[in-house]
Amino acid sequence: MPRYYEDKPEGGACAGVREDLGACLLQSDCVLKEGKSPRQCLKEGNCKALKYSFFECKRSMLDARSRFRGRKGY
């Protein structure tokens, strides 16, 4: 396996954004101090930038223009 693929998270095109979103939610005060589930905190509006990036990444997978421009995300 090439070296530049070793640090890449497994699980598809948006795996890196998904992993960062999960880490952001688990480290938020909503989960740690208030004891809510990460799903509830996401609905309340925590980690908005990563949520939007994950949405854009998933949407770009369905967009036919992404064949030329490449997928959004990392």
In short:
The chain is built from five helices and no strands.
Based on DSSP secondary structure assignment, what is the total number of beta strands?
0
Tally of individual helices: 5
Indicate the mean pLDDT: 82
Helix content: 55-70%
Described by strand count, sense and barrel closure, the largest sheet is:
none
Order of helices and strands: HHHHH
Give the amount of beta strand, in percent: under 5%
Catalogue the unreliable spans.
1-5
N- to C-terminal distance: 19 Å
Radius of gyration: 15 Å
Given helix and strand content, the structural type is: mainly alpha
Tell the overall outline: elongated
Organism: Ceratotherium simum simum (Southern white rhinoceros)
Keywords: Disulfide bond
Family: Belongs to the PET191 family.
Protein name: Cytochrome c oxidase assembly factor 5
What do these coordinates show?
This protein has 74 residues and is mainly alpha-helical. The protein contains five helices and no strands. It has helices at 15-26, 29-32, 38-44, 48-62, 66-69. Helix 1 runs antiparallel to helix 4 (48-62). The radius of gyration is 15 Å and the shape is elongated.
Quick tags:
single chain; 74 residues; mainly alpha
Topology:
Elements: H1 15-26, H2 29-32, H3 38-44, H4 48-62, H5 66-69
Helix pairs in contact: 1-4
